[in-house]
Design goal:
It is elongated, with a radius of gyration of 18 Å. The two termini are about 30 Å apart. It has twelve helices and no strands. The protein has about 200 residues and is mainly alpha-helical. It has helices at about 5-10, 15-20, 30-40, 45-55, 60-70, 80-90, 95-105, 115-125, 130-145, 150-160, 165-175, 180-200.
């Protein structure tokens, strides 16, 4: 399972995150101006638009500000600041911030490395249906990082992510199936079905 460690380390690509944010028709005013500025590479203006909103408690702006600190866009790269803003957004339920904060705890960036905290934040994002977080949670159950090793739960989370078309989940399932018997696999499939029914 060590080969899957790279999965957890993958950050969101800037393109996909910002494109998704720019496509939301509900975005108005300063926030939309910030997204537009970021997309054209005007990070100073984006920062100017996002920071006041973030300080007023806007979760999306908080995530964006954390993302900018994480990637050194418009500000010097600063993992501690990134973690601070991701946490503020994550605590408000922002799924991308939860995923990002989980990754920071996993890698020990801006916070002390803590696999238990990584699991906590990956789980929150996974419960909201985020496929990347589901893969990471599967990995952590499969390796026993931050949680007791549990192949059934690992399989469940991988299969949920696979159903969303996540290729890393396919690899995770391929590896973990070899460690499981048919009863365990059947149990995991039932758990995945129950999860989908509960969350649809």
């Amino acid at each position: 399972l060590a080969t899957l460690a790279v999965v957890v380390a993958l950050p969101f690509s800037a393109g996909s995150v910002w494109a998704d944010m720019g496509a939301d028709p509900a975005q108005q005013g300063n926030y939309a101006d910030g997204v537009e500025a970021y997309n054209r590479g005007d990070y100073a203006t984006a920062l100017q638009e996002f920071r006041p909103l973030a300080e007023q408690g806007d979760a999306k702006a908080q995530f964006n500000l954390g993302f900018m600190y994480d990637n050194g866009k418009g500000v010097p790269e600063n993992d501690v600041e990134a973690a601070k803003w991701h946490r503020k957004a994550a605590e408000q339920g922002d799924v991308m911030a939860q995923y990002s904060l989980g990754g920071m705890y996993f890698r020990g960036e801006g916070v002390s490395q803590n696999f238990t905290e990584a699991v906590k934040w990956f789980r929150k994002a996974a419960e909201q249906g985020d496929a990347y977080a589901q893969v990471n949670l599967g990995f952590m159950y499969g390796t026993g990082e931050g949680v007791p090793m549990n192949y059934v739960k690992a399989y469940m989370w991988y299969s949920l992510a696979k159903a969303q078309g996540n290729e890393d989940a396919v690899k995770g399932l391929y590896i973990i199936e070899k460690e499981m018997n048919t009863d365990q696999i059947a149990k995991a499939q039932v758990l995945a079905t129950e999860w989908r029914e509960k969350h649809n």
